[in-house]
Structure formats: structure tokens, C-alpha cells
What we know:
Elements: E1 2-4, E2 9-11, H1 20-23, H2 30-36, E3 41-44, E4 60-62, H3 73-90, E5 94-102, H4 103-109, H5 114-136, E6 143-148, E7 154-155, E8 165-166, H6 173-176, E9 177-181, E10 187-192, H7 197-204, E11 211-215, E12 234-238, E13 244-245, E14 255-256, E15 270-273, H8 291-299, H9 310-313, H10 326-335, E16 338-343, E17 348-354, H11 357-373
Parallel strand pairs: 3-4, 3-5, 6-16, 8-13
Antiparallel strand pairs: 1-2, 5-17, 6-15, 7-14, 9-10, 10-12, 11-12, 16-17
Helix pairs in contact: 3-5, 10-11
Amino acid sequence: MMFNTETLWKYSFKTTQNKTEWWDNGVLPLWITAQRQGRKTASFHYPGGGAKYQGEAVQRSLVESYTHPNGNETEWRQNIDIVMNWFTKEDFDFVTLYYGEPDNVGHLYGPDTEKRRAMIQQIDRTIGYLLEAIGRHSLTEHLNVIITSDHGMTTMKKKPNITEILLSNYISFKDLVQFDIVDYGGFGMLLPKPGQEEAVYQALKNAHPHLNVYKKEEFPERFHFAKHERVLPIVMYADSGYSISGRIILYFNKGDHGFDNVYMDMKTIFRAFGPDFKKNHLAEPFDSIHIYPLMCKLLGVTPEPHNGSLAVTQEMLVDTYDQQTGAEMKRASALQNTAIGLTVVTGVLVVLFVASVTFTVFCRKKMQRADQNSTSEPVRMTGL
């Protein structure tokens, strides 16, 4: 949800995709970092892919429209074929690919339903198609694949089984609140009217047994959230399965996320395979922030400042990856194998392709030499 407390505007997720003022908040996405270091990058329906960062856009971007359907299996396969061609015919190094399922079905019907299971089966077929497409495009030895998700999903609790959280039972929005972000699940923020912050906090902090209310500066540090300037003065979250409603109960989703990540229902998955990953290796659970330095290593780029650690994921990689030193290591960082990140199962289906950098750079150098030495048509590498 993009919002502006002065204009009172609120924009839903899909309507923010081209709004640079929302996404360009001081943090660089990996595709910008990578292309600044000589990599060729693209975004396919990926969140934030249509924005500019410090005035710079990803080299190629396809932005999902507001009315774009989430669950068309035929289109999913077509999108995979397009991305495979970007790698083999255009030498891209890093591509992000995004699908909005099974999140949509999980919200509408709940996570433990037949419709959700059917969507998981569709995703499973799509991953099978991805594997076939990688082989068909001769990318098996040049592509690493990461499959993960952005969040979990839990079943929402509804009346008459529970007493739902309705903030207007405890405060007057008209008298006390200038702006609010509520009615969107188990999380909310309030901007009180001048001089009313303490009154709002005192009225809400013990209002409902499953509502957790904080002043911004007192929000638990473990969430790594409330220090940003966009966070409003009163921050709240509900216990798992409870939605926070403002003036009336209008929340209709049967499944949702955004709750405390200590709950197992909020956990996600991580799967990876490819030439640089060990086979049949079982890793210990880890925080998602550690995926960023892993992708940077696979792509051969220097990461921006971050809170992750490559040491957490290093054991997943084959031993030969770290046996190269000196000039070999530099060459490997320019030519190492591709990585794909694919979000599925609990959140949305996101594919992050980091192409075999070593191989594609080698192809480009070969093309450049051919161009320099040829007096006829320039040579074009059409595949790997």
C-alpha cells in the first residue's frame, strides 16, 4: 500500500508499479547494482521493476497492469519461454520473473482449501515446465535456480468464533485520527491529530487481547521496521489470524499474512539447484535477508551495504566454487553460473534469473573480437 498522509491518497500494490517516488527510497535493487557493474539485467512483472532508482531504470522492464490475471497457466509458460530466450539470444545475466499466485487464491479461499491445493499443483507443473525449458535451451550447466517466497499464509479468524478487532469501539477516528492505514489485514498504522498521540495510544494499548499497539519509537527491534520515516507514529499488529478493522468490519479475506514471523504459518520455503549448488544438501533454516549476498556471489557483483551474510548460505555451494583464487577468482566472478530465484507455494511466484555471468561475458568478448577482426557482417551469438 502506497500512501500520502498529506493528500490522503492510497494506492494498492499493482497501481504503484510505475511510481518511482514510492520505490526509490534509498535502497538499490539488485538489478541496478548488477548493471552498474557491467551485467545485463531485466525485470518481468517483478515488484518495483517499473521504477527508476537514483534516476536509473532496469535495462528491460515489463510491468504488470492493474487488470493482469494472476493464474493463467498458459501465460506462465509463455513467460518462461520469453525469459529463456532473453538468456540464450540476448545474453542477459539477471532476470526477475514474478507471478501473483498462490497468494491470490490463498487470500480469497484460505490456505487449507481445495482451490489452494489446485493452484499449488499448477505451480508444480510450472516448475516442471521451467526445468524442461532450461534443458531445451541448453542452460542446465549455466543456470542456478532459487525457489523461495516472500511470506506465508494463515487462515483468518472470523466472528462468531472470535471477537474481531474494531478500532472504532475504542477511539473516535473523527476526533483523534488524521490518517490511517488499517483494514488491510493484521497490521496497521495511525497518524493522530496534533496533540492526540498519547490519547490514541492509551485508548488502544490494552483495548483487545489480540491487538499489540506501540508508539513508533517503542516498536520491537526484532522486526527491523519502525525506524523508517514513512512509518506513522502509532504502529500495531494483531495476533495470528486476527484482522485489524477501523470504522466497520469489512475485511473479507479468508487467508492472510503480515503477522509476526515467529509463527510457523508465516515461514516460507527455500529451494535451490544448479551447477554451483550441492545436490541433495539440507540446509538449516535462515532469514531471507541472506539470499541477497548469495545472489551477488553467483552473479559476481559487489553487493550494496546489507544485513545478510554469505557465511549463512556458503555451505550450499559446491566446493569448487571457493577453490579458485587470484586471477581465477576474478575470472569466476565475471563468468560464474546463472542463478534464478523463484517464489512459490506460500506467497507469490517470483523468478530471479542470474545468468551464467562467466559464460555470457565470454560470449560477448568473443563477439567483440569477431566484430573487430571481420570486414563483413558482424558475428552474433544466438545461443549458449
